[in-house]
């Protein structure tokens, strides 16, 4: 049996290929043709690489802008996932991350639709953050604590509203200003600003 590839040195291999079903050989030829087209179009790879670089640059610009927006207001910080992460890391250094964890737990709690889950989640949040001597007790006054306790008897998505608002105010007035002055945030803003300057100098 003659080799189907002209001048093929691996005659034995070619004989083995000839024994394969026609459909397999046709598929292999089709793949070879497609690969050949791609290999002869280096500009395609170049375009793909350029596109990836542009997307990465865009993401960096977005994150730089976001970092600088955190100092505009506490709301801006809480709207940003990376901002919440950075703020949480800072709160850990002050041993007060339970305030943010409670606030986030309340935000998640409000999205609960099942009444059964609402009641069980409410009890879990209360036991972890609100009740006296709770493992991660947040800093709220006795009156707010008692109001929240009473709300549990008929748990609704609003039963932590008052306690959450008090905790948020505490973070905004106390921890947030210190976060903005912290070395970690100052470093982030310097990097964000330098990226902005670098971008303008290249345009």
Q: What would you say this structure looks like, in words?
A:
With 203 residues, the protein is mainly α. The protein has a domain at 60-190: Regulator of G-protein Signalling 4, domain 2 (Orthogonal Bundle), CATH 1.10.167. Helix content is 75%, strand content 0%. It is built from ten helices and no strands. Helix 3 (42-69) packs across helix 10. The longest helix is centred in the N-terminal third of the chain and has 28 residues, at 42-69. Its main location: membrane. Keywords: GTPase activation, Lipoprotein, Membrane, Palmitate, Phosphoprotein, Signal, Signal transduction inhibitor. This is Regulator of G-protein signaling 16.
Number of helices: 10
* Radius of gyration of CA atoms, rounded to a whole number: 30 Å
| Backbone shape | elongated
Q: Largest beta sheet, briefly?
A: none
**CATH class category name of the domain at 60-190:** Mainly Alpha
Which stretches of 5+ consecutive residues score pLDDT under 50?
1-5, 8-14, 37-58
Structural class: mainly alpha
Number of strands: 0
Mean pLDDT: 79
CATH topology of the domain at 60-190: Regulator of G-protein Signalling 4, domain 2
Portion of residues within helices: over 70%
What's the CATH superfamily of the domain at 60-190, by name?
Regulator of G-protein Signalling 4, domain 2
Q: Kindly, what is the distance between the CA atoms of the first and last residues, rounded to a whole number of angstroms? A: 66 Å
Order of SSEs: HHHHHHHHHH
CATH architecture of the domain at 60-190: Orthogonal Bundle
Organism: Grus americana
Protein name: Regulator of G-protein signaling 16
Domain RGS: 73-189
Main location: membrane
């Amino acid at each position: 049996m003659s080799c189907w590839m002209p001048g093929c040195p691996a005659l034995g291999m070619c004989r083995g290929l000839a024994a394969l079903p026609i459909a397999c050989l046709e598929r292999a030829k089709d793949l070879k043709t497609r690969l050949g087209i791609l290999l002869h179009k280096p500009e395609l790879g170049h375009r793909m690489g350029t596109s990836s670089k542009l997307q990465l640059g865009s993401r960096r610009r977005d994150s730089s802008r976001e970092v600088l927006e955190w100092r505009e207001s506490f709301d801006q910080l809480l709207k940003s996932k990376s901002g919440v992460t950075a703020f949480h890391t800072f709160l850990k250094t002050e041993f007060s991350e339970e305030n943010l964890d409670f606030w986030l737990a309340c935000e998640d709690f409000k999205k609960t639709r099942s009444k059964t889950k609402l009641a069980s989640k409410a009890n879990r949040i209360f036991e972890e953050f609100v009740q006296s001597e709770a493992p991660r007790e947040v800093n709220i006054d006795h009156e707010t604590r008692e109001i929240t306790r009473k709300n549990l008897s008929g748990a609704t998505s609003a039963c932590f509203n008052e306690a959450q608002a008090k905790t948020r105010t505490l973070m905004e007035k106390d921890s947030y200003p210190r976060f903005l002055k912290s070395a970690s945030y100052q470093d982030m803003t310097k990097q964000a600003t330098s990226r902005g300057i670098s971008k303008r100098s290249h345009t």
